Prior knowledge:
Order of helices and strands: EEHEHEEHHE
Strand order of the largest sheet: 5-4-2-1-3-6
Structural class: alpha/beta
Largest sheet: 6 strands, mixed
Radius of gyration: 14 Å
Amino acid sequence: xxxxxxxxxxxxxxxxxxxxxxxxxxxxxxxxxxxxxxxxxxxxxxxxxxxxxxxxxxxxxxxxxxxxxxxxxxxxxxxxxxxxxxxxxxxxxxxxxxxxxxxxxxxxxxxxxxxxxxxxxxxxxxxxxxx
Length: 131
């Protein structure tokens, strides 16, 4: 499998809601999320959680580990605009849950103000070999 730089990012919404995704070009992807046609019709902060140099399989597992970390921190994880993962505990593999338990979800439980339109780089490097 092709190893390349991949960015795991989060869209942070008010009321403890978030979307975690990945891209090989996070700035482009976040701009796409901001298009009116994308379905994300409210303000959000975009944050880079980590950057990895790996294949898509391991990046997907890391993406789910971050979703699990958000879930454990009390956040509601979106799978698409307006849709929540209702089965996240079931679809997340046990080894990915263990990695997610070791990640520190870096956001407070309540975000009510201070949203901006810029991408904030929040680099948290982990060893993908542990996944």
